[in-house]
Design goal:
This protein has about 425 residues and is of the alpha/beta class. It is built from 10 helices and 16 strands.
Length: about 425
Amino acid sequence: MDKRVEGDGRKEIKKNRLGRTQLKKEAPMQLKRSYRPQLGIALVLAILLLVSGGIRSNAADPASGKKSGRVSLTKIKGRDWLLTAEGRPFFAHGITHAGNQFAKLDLKKFSEACKELGFNAYGYGCPQQLRKDMPYVASWNHLVPISYYRGKNGVKFVDVFDPKVEARLEAGVKAYCRINANTSVNVIGYCWTDLGSWPLENPSGKNWVDFIRQLPKNAAGQKAYQGFLQTWKGDGGKERDQAFLRLIAQRYFRILGEAQRKHAPDQLIFGDRFGFNTIDPDVMKEMLPYVDAIAIQPPFHGQFPKEKFDAIHQLTQKPILICDFAIRFKDGEKDIRSWKPAANSVAAGKAYAEYVQAALQTDYVVGVFWCNPVDTPKGFGKSGVKQGFFGEGMAGRPGLDQSVKEVNSLREALTPKK
């Protein structure tokens, strides 16, 4: 049995019936059925070439799925796969932020458009009306508002050592689990805070250690910090602050992790959503006992960053969900800010298909979600357009639609059959 040190005591970790680590102790819309694009001759040949060139097809000898009543994880021929509540393997692929208040979607039309392209899931930010339609990622981003894109004045750390804060956080987790209880059969898993300002040096310009250090003398966090200093034997400065940051992470993830398992015990947990620039290995290690897989929001810098994903997988030894990703492209005079936007939607579609194909070639990526359904403002006082997958009125983007249809056909062909 695995054990880990938590503060001043030890807690045993056991496996639950879904095979993950768990701490001891403690009116619907009428929507169209999912459409499966037919494979053309050219695509069939492309699939055969890809399989012989490195993408393994597990379809020839699949493991039988086991019905669990909830989305779960499994391994088939050494590769991680999600399993539907009915026990069917799947690689989740869809679009995030369908509930974006600025999108003002016709949700029935959006659902039909997604299925027409072969998408099989919704990413985080899925509105209530779509939660019985397809599997979806549940998430929140308000309990601890530390996302770095909120800006220095918008990032608000909390005193996780304060029992009142702990009670508030658990109540928030409980409330959100209740919101998703009636559609839990479709919950792929839960994500927590988005792109948190975890590293001591991060884009927000402030960090959690400084926040605790500046609390009043009678604050629980200040007392915890002073107690830490009395026992600290190492050097001062960054080494000391990094050690205390790990204690903050330990406390934070214990609070959220135990609450999550208590109020949604059979659901998968992805935990905090990390970008490459928000990963702190010490922090991530403190999250691992409470999560089943890792949620990553990578930027696009030209190609699938396999070395970075490999390093995350090696550190965590858990599957990875690419939970929010897109390839932005030039679109008339719109202010589309991105790392080298693609020349047009055709080029973006080609690059996106290559990215998803590369994800399918790994042993550990279990899903990819495109960021944003339609063009919206960026929010948080930022100028420019947050580009969407669909054009105005849910119109298709030239080239992008076809590339996604083809990659979804490839995904279907490579997915083990029950």
